[in-house]
Specification:
The complex is a heterodimer of chains A (357) and B (182). In chain A, 49% of the residues lie in helices and 15% in strands. In chain A, a hairpin with a 4-residue loop joins β3 and β4. The radius of gyration of chain A is 21 Å and the shape is globular. With 182 residues, chain B is mainly alpha-helical. Among the domains of chain B are: 43 residues, no CATH class; 42 residues, no CATH class; 42 residues. The radius of gyration of chain B is 24 Å and the shape is elongated. Classes of the chains: A alpha+beta (357), B mainly alpha (182). The complex binds zinc ion (ZN) (2 copies). The site of one zinc ion has 8 residues of chain B, from α1. Chain B: GO terms for molecular function: cadmium ion binding; cobalt ion binding; copper ion binding; kinase activity; zinc ion binding.
Amino acid sequence: MSLERFINQAVSSWMSEEGPDSDIVLSSRIRLARNFENYKFPTLFSHEEAQSIILKMEEILRESNFTKFGQMELLKIDDIQPLQKRVLVEKHLISPNLAEDSPYGAVLLTENEEVSIMINEEDHIRIQCLFPGLQLTEALEAANEVDDWLESHIHFGFDEKHGYLTSCPTNVGTGLRASVMMHLPGLMLTQQINRIIPAINQLGLVVRGIYGEGSEALGNIFQISNQITLGKSEEDICRDLKGVVSQLISQERSAREALRKTSNIQLEDRVFRSYGVLSNCRIIETKEAAKCLSDVRLGIDMGYIDHLPKNILNELMILTQPGFLQQYAGGHLRANERDIRRAALIRERIKMESDKR
Amino acid sequence: MICQECNQRPAALHFTKIINGEKTEVNLCEKCAQEKGEMFMINGGSGFTFNNLLAGLLNIDPTVQKQNQNTFHQEEVLQCNKCSMTFPQFIKVGRFGCAHCYETFKEQLPPVLRRLHSGNWSHSGKIPKRIGGSIHLKKQVENLKNELKELIQQEEFEKAAKIRDEIRTLEKELPSSSKGGE
Ligand SMILES: [Zn+2]
Ligand SMILES: [Zn+2]
């Protein structure tokens, strides 16, 4: 398969489309956790209960025509090939938990992959909406519509005091997890991030790099999400998160401007060195690829590089994950083979854009 | 301890995973953890070390521990009659067994929930439509009353009067039993 066709098939809308503030915000995600009334939670439920939940979901899908977000398809985890599962994880459409440990799991997907509904993960139902750029309100609205649709067919566990009852007490209440993925190279380079993260944590929000709080983020990408799900309304949770994200955006923008003023040539050098690595490497590990992609993306945002599309970072961060690399290669790859394939894919992708000019 | 993934390097990361109520110890070297980490990173990392974290968090909570001991001293351990989860079990696993557990453990939950949700222990978000209008109204009245208090504090009396009228109108719609004492 040609790279171009592969990419067109592999890339979901949140990766390819540009959303508001997409120079800094890669994506916005809303997740709602819901559970069937009178069924045990997935940690304890029986084989029969698990099956009947899937059957009920299939029935709802057959009998009601909810097509607001496009046609939906239900996939049972057991029927999906391991490699395909991994690709779904890498696309953020299912969780690693569902892929690895849920024999009775399933996922409902819309065509454009904006909406996915995980079934029998930690909770019976997890509605997820993933939008490009900063679109928390839009994503919440979409998730609410999906929730209303399901609620008209299912009695979800709910009580007046605790709200939506979830398997884990950290999700009870709204069942809402709102997260925003941000690219913050300016705050990293100016070393402000270490000061900012603790401040954000104090506001009841969680910041994650690759290994969680405080540690190095792969490719300068951070995910910021709410920690509290109880005692605040869905709108308040999103508004608070959005407030912090907006502040981060403006701080990141001023950091970039400061860098341009104080160390323009050093920054340009860094960007083009990374560009050089990406367009010439023959072996590259995830970590180095992520670092270089972050530099190049910054170079695009700051106008040093003008022949590459903005979304190349999102796209290549996803496409160079093990699942995608193996799918593109058409078979299993060992770690060192993946490093070679990763280098080739990145080179080809950059060449593809250069050829377009 | 040797890494369970590559069986070569010494394990640097240790954590517990809980799947279907069963606990598994996971020991990985940094390199393998990083490879796994790729997967966890892109999915936000939730569910990875979380069980462990929660159990730890709840166990160090002195109020919970105390209640925990109290429960042990009682003749019967508090247990959910729908799913058989006991309170000590819940603290250990960090997961409820079913929705009814919330009812079973309702006396024990406020300190746990407060700790996890910055002092909050009661829901003020979305309500399913089928639960009906009266809860909606009650919540709406509650919210308006809070707003009223704030407006009075800020001496915004004109706005406050408007809110007060709104509350009166809404309260007329409430069934008399659920008006709540004041
Ligand atoms: Zn290892
Ligand atoms: Zn129970």
